[in-house]
C-alpha cells in the first residue's frame, strides 16, 4: 500500500536519554517531533486545522489563508496548504531566522515580515487587521480547537502506547499551548495521576517557541486546570541544554526543546521513581543562522 507525505505525520520516536538522569528508577524519554516531515510538532496541528476546516466547508480551494507565526507553525501550515493547493500568507517578526522564512517560501507561502520590536503580538495584530479588511480566512491557532485536538488524537495516544501505559509525568513547552492541552486531556482520561508540567520562560527571557503571554494575548484554547505545574527556565539554561543535547545525546533541536529538557531534568531530580516524557518540538537546523550553537 502506498504512503503519502501526510501519512508520516506523527508516530515519532520516543528515546531514552543516555546521560542526563543518574537515578536508575527514573526514566526521561524524549519525543522527537523533528522527525515529522515538516520538521516539528506543529505538523500535527497544521494538518488537523486545515483538513478539519476543509471537511467542515469553512474553506475551499479558492480560500486565502492568513496566519501569524513565530516559525514552526508557519512552516507546517505552508507545507500542508501547498499539499491541498491553498494560498497562504504567513506573518512573522522580521528578526525570525532566515531558515524559517526561506522554508516557508520554499513550500510556496507568501511571507510578510512585521517589526521585530512588536514581536509575535504585532504579527498577530497585523494578520487580524488584514483578515478584517480582506477576504482572508485566519487559521487562528491560538483560538482553534483543532489545534489541541490534533494532540488529543495523536500525541497523547502515542505516548500512552509507547510507554506501555507507564508514563507518570508529561513535560511540554508552552507557546500556543495546543500540545500540552491536547496531550493532557488524553492522558488524564487514561490516568488522572499523570502529572502535566508546562514550561515557561523566566521574566525577560527570550526563548523562541516558549512564551509567557500578556493577558490580552493569552491563547483562548489554554485551560489552566489541565496543567498541574509550571516550571520556568532562563535563556542560559535553555541554550546550554540545547547544545548538550546535540553534543552528548545526538539530538539536534531548537532552543525551546532545550528549555523543556532542562525543566524535565529538574523534575526528574525531584523524583524517586517515574517515567517522564518531554517534547523535543523541532530540529536545530532552522536556528543555524542564530547564535544558538556558537562556541562559548
Describe this entry's structure for a reader.
This protein is 38% helix and 18% strand. The protein has 296 residues and is α/β, with parallel strands linked by helices. It folds into 2 domains: 5-35 and 154-287, 3-Layer(aba) Sandwich (Rossmann fold); 42-138, Rossmann fold (3-Layer(aba) Sandwich), CATH 3.40.50. The strands form 2 sheets. Strands 1-2-10-7-8-9 form a 6-stranded mixed β-sheet. Strands 5-4-3-6 form a 4-stranded parallel β-sheet, with helices on both faces. Helix 1 packs across helix 5 and helix 6 crosses helix 7. The protein is globular, with a radius of gyration of 18 Å. The mean pLDDT is 95. The modification N6-(pyridoxal phosphate)lysine is found at residue 42. Pathway: Amino-acid biosynthesis; L-cysteine biosynthesis; L-cysteine from L-serine: step 2/2. Residues 6-282 form the Tryptophan synthase beta chain-like PALP domain. This is Cysteine synthase. It comes from Gillisia limnaea (strain DSM 15749 / LMG 21470 / R-8282).
Judged by helices, strands and strand pairing, the structural class is: alpha/beta
CATH C-level class of the largest domain: Alpha Beta
Main sheet characteristics: 6 strands, mixed
Please state the second-level CATH architecture of the largest domain. Answer: 3-Layer(aba) Sandwich
Number of domains: 2
Sheet with most strands: strand arrangement: 1-2-10-7-8-9
Domain Tryptophan synthase beta chain-like PALP: 6-282
Catalytic activity: O-acetyl-L-serine + hydrogen sulfide = L-cysteine + acetate
Keywords: Amino-acid biosynthesis, Cysteine biosynthesis, Pyridoxal phosphate, Transferase
Protein name: Cysteine synthase
